[in-house]
Amino acid sequence: MIFPLGIMRTSNALVCAGFLKRGAIFAVCLFVFCEWFIYYMVILQCSWPVFTIEEHAKSSEPLRTMLLTDTHLLGSKDGHWFDKLRREWQMERAFQTAVSYFKPDVIFLLGDLFDEGMKCSDERKNPVKNLHEQTKALTGTQTHKLEWNKYIQRFHKMFRHSTRTKFYVVVGNHDIGFHYEASGDQHLFQRFSAEFDSPSVKLLNIRGNLFVLVNSIALQGDECSMCSEAMTQLMNVANKLNCHRERSSKKVYEDVIKKEKKTCDLPKDSPAPILIQHFPLYRRNEVRCTGVDAPPDEEKRSKNREKWEVVSKEMSQKLLSLLRPRLVLSGHTHHGCYLLHDDGTPEMTIPSFSWRNRNNPSFVLSVISPEKFALSKCFIPRESTVIAVYIIGGIVFVVMNFGLTYTSLRTRRKFNSCVR
Ligand SMILES: [Zn+2]
User: Fold this and answer.
1) CA 406 to ligand 1 centroid distance, Å
2) DSSP bridge pairs for 275
3) Residue 390 vs residues 26, 39, 93, 127: alpha-carbon distances, Å
4) Terminal-residue alpha carbon distance, the chain
5) Which helix (H) or strand (E) holds 81?
6) Average pLDDT for residues 255-274, to the nearest whole number?
7) 70 C-alpha to ligand 1 centroid (Å)
8) 275 Cα distance to chain centroid
9) CA distance to 75, 78, 116, 313, per residue, from 141 (Å)
């Protein structure tokens, strides 16, 4: 009798080890599928927009651009740690998958990089007056200093990219607060601007394509120093852009202009710029928005508040008339939107890149040349799909184990009756 019982115990142990092994392999496969593979499966279905180059323009290689917005990295105050872990992993995987596959020349992030940028402390907000206080408050000061630094480090880790890819950001209201906060504490914009080399207005010339990046929080039109500085910079950029247009429209004064020796910084055949900012330009509501991820009908009709959801009507007209952009790109609403303004200027509002803000986040791929541009939207996996795969996988796992346990018990019963 001793020999058969020994065999039975060994058999049970083998069955148990088999369960554990199969369970571990299944769990690892499910995890790898949901956390890595699914990103490739979904994102690789997207492609660069079709873009044909005319013969005369073949000398300049078109610019491949990736655009995303509203990443809203959580800080230390709001949100649950699991929310932060889950959504930041989702954004990091989606971004890294897209960047490694599409290899864009330039990436633009259209603001609200952080969710708590305006609440996040640094050492300036906790001034230490003397050596005694310095020693006493050393730990606290380091903590606060680390808070902003850690935020920045996490951002750079998540959105790491090769050195050949240029990366630009514009500021959003969650990075420095809305105007009432940002104008009250100028340090909020200064530290953001210093970290990301992001002044209130920035003119970029990349392979002959012009981009104007604007701090739309500073478009309040009042006398606050951030707003005044932004307007001065905006006028400087507008003068550069309109230099040739001004000269050609003032032919009668050609002699005067020659005497002034006014030269233009930009080549005469420069294209109209592409305006990039966080707030969309003024639109009364979202009714005219088109696109698969446009706001739902019940939200479309609610009126947009100037300077909160959109730039004020007056400042929007000013931007359009000063810059005369060929395309406007914006974020902030977390929904998609494509529309034409009254003067025919197209605007694309890009939805949030984070599962925190929508179930189906996306980014935009754009091919741009001085003559034209083309846009395509790329979706990343839906959060509901990933959750469904986990649930179905869990059910399959439980059913599979139940089946195997049942088979094993039946085998044991048969074996026991044979031994008796
Ligand atoms: Zn925003």
Assistant:
1) 55
2) 212, 328
3) 11, 15, 17, 49
4) 9
5) helix 81-102
6) 73
7) 7
8) 17
9) 17, 21, 19, 43
pLDDT at 363 over 90: yes
| Centre of ligand 1 from the C-alpha of residue 68, in Å | 13
CATH class of the domain defined by 38-49+60-127+142-398: alpha beta
Residue type, 252: V
341 Cα: distance to centroid of ligand 1 (angstroms): 21
Task: List phi, psi (to 5°) of 318.
Answer: -65, -45
Q: 310-345 pLDDT, tens per residue? A: 999 999 999 999 999 999 999 999 999 999 999 999
Secondary structure of residue 382 in the 3-state scheme: coil
CA distance 282 to 66: 24
pLDDT in tens, 57-87: 666 789 999 999 999 999 888 878 888 888 9
Helices (H), 137-185: 138-158, 173-176, 179-182
Query: From the CA of 160, how far away is ligand 1's center (Å)?
Result: 23
pLDDT at 255: 52
